Queue: 2 jobs
Job 1
Amino acid sequence: MSAAAPPVLQVPEVRVGRVPWQVKFLALALIWGSSFLLMKVGLGSLAPLQISGLRIFAGVTALLVLLGLTRGRLPRGRRTWAHLMVTGFFLGTLPFSLFAASEERVSSALAGIGNATTPLATVLFSLALLPAERLPGRKVAAVLAGFAGVLVILQPWESLGRPDPIGFGMTLVAGASYGLGWTYVKRYLQRDNPGGLSMPTAQLLTAAAQMVVVLVVWWALSRDAFAAPWSQRPDATAASPLWPVLAVLLLGVVGTGLAYVLQFDVVRAAGPTVGTTVTYLIPVVSVVLGVTLLDESLAWPQLAGAAIVLASAVVIGMPRRRLPAPPA
C-alpha cells in the first residue's frame, strides 16, 4: 500500500518464521519509507497517474498470489464491497495518485514528511465518524501542535525559498485521505473482516478497478502527448524508460504485497501497539534516502516542522492512561 502503515487486521494463526520481529520491523520502515524515493524515480519517464496505476496493478497481483498461497478468500456481500469501493478510493486511488503528483513539485523527503500528518487527520475523522470516540486533552494539544508544525514547514511568512504550497498541500490531502479511509474501515468494515489478506486484497481490487477508469479518462484527455496509456511521458528525463517502470513495480509488489506479510508477523510477535509505531519511522527513512541518494535538501524550518509533526504523532499514538484500581 502506501507509505502509511495500515491498521491492525485480524490474522489467522500462522507460525512466525525464524527471522526476529525486530528485523522485520526495520524492513517495514525501509520499504514504506523508500516508496517516496521510488515514486521520484518513476517520474523519470512516467506520468503520476501511470505510477499510481502501475503500483496498484502490481500490488493487487502480488496480494492475489499471496491470498491463493495462504488459501484465503475474498469477502462476500454487496454491502461489504460497496464500502470497499469507498476505502479503495481513500486508501489507494486518491493518496497514491496525489503523492506521485506532489513529487513533481516537492522533494521525496518533503513528501514523506507530509505523510506523517496521517495520525492528526485520523484523530479528527474519528471524532466526526465514531460517536463513542473521546479525545483526551493531551491529544487535543498534540493535534494543535501538529498543525503548527505544518505551518512551520510551509513558512507562510516567507515569499521566497519556501516549499511549493500546492505540492506540499497534495501530500497533506493524501495523508488526510489515509486518516479518513482507516476511520471508515473501523466504522463500517471491522465486523466484516474475515482475517488474513482478504480485506487488503479486496480493497486493492476496488482501487484497481477505479484506476482503470481514471487512466482511460486521463488518456482520452492527454492523447496529444501520449500515444497510449502506457507511453513514456514526452518530457522524460530518465536515461532508460526501463528503470522507472522497475522502480514502480518494486513499489507495488514489495511495498504492498511483502510489506503486509511482514506487518502481520510483527503484530503477531510484538503486538499491535509496537506494530503500528513503524509509521513514525517512515518520514525519517524518506528524508535520509532523499538527501543521500537524490541530493535533496531541506531547510531548517522543514526539519523543525517535521520534528514537531512527528512528536505530535507519537503523542497521539500513545495508549490511554489507565487509572489504578481502587484498593480491595
Job 2
Amino acid sequence: MAYAIIETRPTGARGTPVQMCRPNRPGRFPCVILLHERYGLVEHTEDLARKMSEAGFVVCAPDLFYAYPDQAALHAGSVAMKPSDPEVLALLEDAFTLFAGVPEADASRLGMMGVCQTGRYPFVWAKHHPLQACVSLYGAAQKGDWEVNERFPWGMAGLISAVETNVLGIFGENDHIISIDDVRRFRDALEAANLSYQITVYAGAPHGWLNDTMPGRYRPELAKQAWDEVIAFLTATLATERDPSLVEWRFNARKHADYDFKKNVRLE
C-alpha cells in the first residue's frame, strides 16, 4: 500500500541539511536514514526517500557532502568527497536528532540504508548506537573498506565484529568494484560475528543498477526486485516483532558459470 507523504527540508543543529519524508496519515512509523551515493543528495536519492516513505516509513535523507565547495562537480561525479568515518558519524548524529521534530516518527525502530560509498556507514552508526536494520547496496564489501587507516579507523572487520543488527546486503554479479569473492568475505564476517543476515547477488546486474538516472547502469526489472527486497526487509525488521534469540543466515547468489570479475566494466 502506498501512502501520501509530507516532505520537509529541515537542518540539524550542527548544519546538516536533510530531506525528511513521512506518511500523511495518523500513526507512529518506523524510521529509516537513507544515505546517498558519492554524488551527494541528488534526484535519485530524493526519489528513493519518497518511495520508501510511501511504503510506511519516516525517512531522513541527509546530505553528507553538503560542505563540498563545488556541488555541481560533485553531483556530476567528476570529483569525490571522502570523509572519515568519525566525520560521517557526527553528521549522522546531527541528522538523527531531527526525528524528534516529527510526531509520527518512532526512532526506537531505526534502520539505515547506504549505497556504494555510503554502504559502510550503517555499520559505523551501529558500532556506536542501536540499529535494528542495516542495509547496504553494492557497498561495504570493497577491498578498501577493510583497510584500517586514518579515514577508516575501524575497518569493516572491526565494525562488523562490534555491532548488533540485522543486515541486508545486495550485490550485482557484473559489479566492477565488488567481486563475488568480496561478497563471500563480507558474508563470512557476518557469520563470524553471529549476525542475522540476508545477502542477494543478482545475476547480470552491474554496479549501480538501481539508479534510474544513469541509463547505462539502470536495470528496471532487477531494480524493482531489489527495491521490493529492501522494503520487505525493513518491514520485517522494523514493523514486526522478531525473536532476538534467533540468528538467521540467508545467502542467495546467482552467477553465470563463466563468471570472470576481470571482465566487469564501469557503466554510466
